[in-house]
Q: What sequence folds into this?
């Protein structure tokens, strides 16, 4: 079997998605997600101009060799754009392999370790009262794990909080807009938020929170310690991940579990964090972390050090990635939890999905391969629209982490 062609499909049913479609001489094709929020065209160009010409004529079953070809062979290794392209290629090749063998992806990765996948949703409130109401609605929907984000008094446009009662989507049309931040206000308020949520809804639900890289190690240690009484499932990205040693300060001060790495793209971003057991969950998604081939190795490495998976799964990743992640989640022994933000209904006009949510868990059917398909005719109705993630400044004007 040989690869005969490949194409990049860019569509915007509510938000931009980039999909790689690889064709073979047996009439079988595979799909890979290549979406990188705010940098979609960079990945699309890299695939079209550099990767696809190399793929033609290759045997798609050689997933290991092709992964190293595009990682080692380019010399300029890693980086979000190139690793997203590699991820898309790898995902599509595994999809082809499953279709050729007539079996779902999870069987190729080791078979099921569980029957269903625990997921968490996002409860995002403009203020504490709004958050309490939305958390209650998410519990009624059946979620057993909920990420809690709230507007902070004195801070406009707080991360995670939707505008105009619409579903939260950080990317805005056109060039980046600026948001404002005050860490001191945030640190004073968030413990009160979790105290109230526990008071209202008790201790049975899993609660998570995303700091979004906005604390120094000392500030993060303070927050993690103050949140200990509320028994978080995890505290996500308490500090920016570039300085891995910063996590040591948090670990020495608190037993609150730590998740990090949705912006990471290789195992080398995790080596210190995992070997020193400074974190509890890896967040790097299949679509940005080198695909299935690489994440299998990352998960195996993490398992030795009692670190579990908790993949990023926001709406800035397409249904192709979500399905692939669910297959992966079903297989690996050290699965922890899967983020799940439902896509807008309009996305289902373009993508045919093979997964569903029931009572706090996700399941995926036994369609061969990844199991998601794309309607190219429908995708043409939704042309690409330039959109950018925000940038962030402290209240005095200093550029800061978004």
A:
């Amino acid at each position: 079997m040989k690869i005969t062609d490949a194409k990049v499909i860019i569509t915007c049913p509510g938000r931009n998605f980039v999909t790689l479609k690889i064709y073979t001489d047996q009439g079988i094709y595979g799909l890979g997600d290549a979406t990188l929020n705010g940098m979609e065209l960079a990945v699309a160009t890299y695939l079209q101009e550099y990767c696809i010409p190399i793929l033609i004529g290759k045997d798609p079953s050689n997933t290991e060799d092709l992964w190293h070809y595009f990682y080692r062979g380019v010399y300029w290794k890693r980086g979000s754009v190139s690793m997203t392209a590699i991820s898309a290629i790898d995902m599509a090749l595994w999809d082809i392999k499953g279709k050729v063998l007539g079996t779902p992806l999870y069987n190729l990765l080791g078979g099921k370790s569980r029957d269903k996948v625990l997921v968490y949703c996002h409860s995002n409130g403009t203020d504490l009262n709004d958050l309490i109401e939305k958390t209650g609605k998410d519990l009624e929907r059946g979620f057993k794990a909920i990420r809690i984000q709230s507007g902070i008094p004195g801070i406009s446009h707080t991360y995670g909080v939707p505008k105009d009662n619409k579903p939260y989507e950080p990317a805005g049309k056109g060039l980046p807009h600026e948001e404002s931040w005050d860490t001191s206000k945030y640190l004073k308020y968030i413990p009160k938020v979790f105290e109230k949520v526990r008071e209202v809804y008790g201790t049975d639900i899993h609660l998570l929170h995303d700091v979004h890289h906005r604390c120094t190690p000392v500030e993060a240690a303070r927050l993690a310690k103050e949140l200990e009484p509320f028994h978080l499932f995890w505290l996500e990205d308490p500090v920016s991940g570039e300085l891995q040693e910063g996590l040591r300060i948090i670990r020495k001060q608190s037993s609150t579990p730590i998740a990090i790495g949705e912006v990471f793209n290789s195992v080398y971003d995790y080596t210190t964090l995992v070997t020193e057991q400074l974190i509890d969950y890896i967040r790097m998604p299949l679509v940005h972390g080198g695909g299935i081939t690489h994440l299998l190795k990352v998960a195996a490495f993490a398992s030795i050090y009692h670190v579990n998976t908790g993949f990023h799964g926001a709406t800035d990743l397409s249904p192709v990635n979500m399905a692939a992640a669910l297959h992966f989640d079903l297989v690996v022994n050290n699965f922890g939890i899967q983020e799940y933000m439902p896509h807008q209904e309009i996305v289902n006009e373009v993508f045919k999905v093979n997964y569903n949510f029931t009572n706090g868990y996700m399941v995926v059917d036994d369609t061969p391969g990844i199991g998601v398909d794309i309607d190219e005719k429908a995708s043409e109705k939704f042309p690409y629209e330039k959109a950018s993630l925000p940038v962030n400044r402290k209240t005095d004007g200093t550029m800061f982490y978004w």
User: Anything to note?
Assistant: The mean pLDDT is 96. The chain has twelve helices and 20 strands.
